[in-house]
Amino acid sequence: MHPDIAKMNERYRQESEVLQKVRDEVAKVIIGQEDLVEALLLALLCNGHVLIEGIPGLAKTLAVTTLAQTLHAGFNRIQFTPDLLPGDLIGTMMYNPKTNEFTPHMGPIFANIILADEINRSPAKVQSALLEAMQEHQVSIGDQTYKLDEPFLVLATQNPVEQEGTYHLPEAQVDRFMFKLDVVYPTKDEEHRILKRMGKTSVDLSVDAVVEIADINRLRGLVDEVFMDEKIEHYILDLVQATRDPAWFGLDCAELIRYGASPRASIFLAVASRGKAMLNGRGYVIPQDVKDVAPDILRHRVILSYEAAAEEKSAEDILKLILDTVEVP
Fold it and tell me: Which residue segments constitute the domains of the chain, with CATH numbers given?
């Protein structure tokens, strides 16, 4: 190995140990769900929002809350309900009878990490207010615009849309999430450990805050310095192109895809691949980094057709076919 590469890797390995402290703290509470925790850390590194989907009871909310507690950062949990109003989220203008003036009252969105719990239980007006915060990192209250604190991260949980009392999130909003994570059932062994730890009337869920905001900002700067060869860039572009024009890559699934991934997918794949390399203690990206992050970035950006539903094909099926077929550099 070239001395410069070895030195660079050692630097990234040392920096990744900061994130290992977070993993260790989260593991005090969360059993299993390593992929979920890894993706949340990656989102923190890459400045990307996360949508977490799964049936109730799989520790989605607990995982996000525990992660937030390991950081010296502002954290607010917002429970989304059908009667939630935009003002409940971003704040509103309050009348002060003493001064005879309206003054802004800041809502819970003004924090570094926002847990949007059961995000799909609120209607369009609330989602519209959240969309501005997610995309622009700012909110509008009255005729004034207010910048949000950095880092700003929305970690949203969502129950499957076919359950009672839920709304379908607009595709434009879903596309703003860097990752969409599907949380699955634990294994029997993991559930046995959960039972032994949580099957009590009193459970200690406390963790220590081990990372400062300055650490997060420093690590984000290092992510941008991770080397990506141009061949890897073209590999990312080919993966995204394959979702739009499968036939060009010899894939027989064009009729199953209604819309392919947007250019935002290419950008997120590049950033997340760099972040993945850093999590692995490397200063350069390899094709496996791209493959590791691709499903979570592309599954909500590939819109399937009615034919796919009729054939019981999922986005994961299409993405696996693409990842297995597109030539790896």
Answer: 3-197+211-217 (3.40.50.300), 226-325 (1.10.8.80)
